[in-house]
Amino acid sequence: MRITSVEVAALTLSVKVALLSLIIMLPPGLFIGWLLVRRDFIGKTLLNTIVMSPLVLPPVVTGYLLLILLSKQGLIGSILYRTLKLDIVFSPIAVVIAVSIISFPLLVRGIMTGIASVPMELENAARTLGSNPFKVFLTITLPLAYKGILGGVILGFTKSLGEFGATYMVAGNIPGKTQTIALSIFDAVQLGNDIAVFRLVLISTIIAFIAIWVTERYIYHHNDVY
């Protein structure tokens, strides 16, 4: 049952990528979550649909779209390669992008739930006392919405750890470079290594169980939004 160096590398990469993804996506997630809950504007439904679409699209479809955009011939990838000589496809950067796109909807959903639970009367009162919208968000909305935000962070982090389809399409499955724990499980299944499969599945299941249990027990427990 001893974990191998390849599996350690896959698990380490998964954790690093999930953490980096959260750091990158949390600021825009907070802004978009706040925007979708607190503001009415033209295109709101379209924005919400775009943000949430990775939840319903097959991950391989999302990965294929990313591959089209980020390859050397793609709309974004070609510009990056010509200007910075940066080839994103089949690199660790591609892993970060893939898991960020897939986990972003869960992060935003949690943020929206948290912000929606904050009474608007408190925010309006702060504005009447002279606080600007940014200060109201930092001093009123953010502290009171922390449970939903933290729940979104945990679920987004866990989703990042388990992402497979989009990562495989745009980043490949290169041990020590782009192989995450989900891809490592895929490799072990292909090779018929049942012991490795059981070991990695057990690790993934424990991580997912702990994340969901903590979210339900300490964050959403007694939350009247749910």
In short:
This protein has 226 residues and is mostly helical.
Order of helices and strands: HHHHHHHHHHH
- Tell me about the biggest sheet? none
Radius of gyration: 20 Å
Strand content: under 5%
Shape: globular
Low-confidence stretches: 222-226
Count of DSSP strands = 0
- Structural class assignment: mainly alpha
**Helical percent range?**
over 70%
Q: What is the rounded distance between the termini?
A: 40 Å
Discrete helix count:
11
Mean pLDDT: 89
Any key phrases for this structure?
disordered C terminus; 77% helix; 226 residues; mainly alpha; single chain
What does this structure look like?
- α5 packs antiparallel against α8.
- The protein has eleven helices and no strands.
- The C terminus is likely disordered.
- The N and C termini lie far apart (40 Å).
- It is globular and about 65 Å long.
- The longest helix has 34 residues.
- The chain is mainly alpha-helical and 226 residues long.
SSE layout and pairing:
Blueprint: H1 5-38, H2 44-56, H3 59-70, H4 77-84, H5 92-116, H6 120-128, H7 133-144, H8 146-162, H9 165-171, H10 181-191, H11 194-219
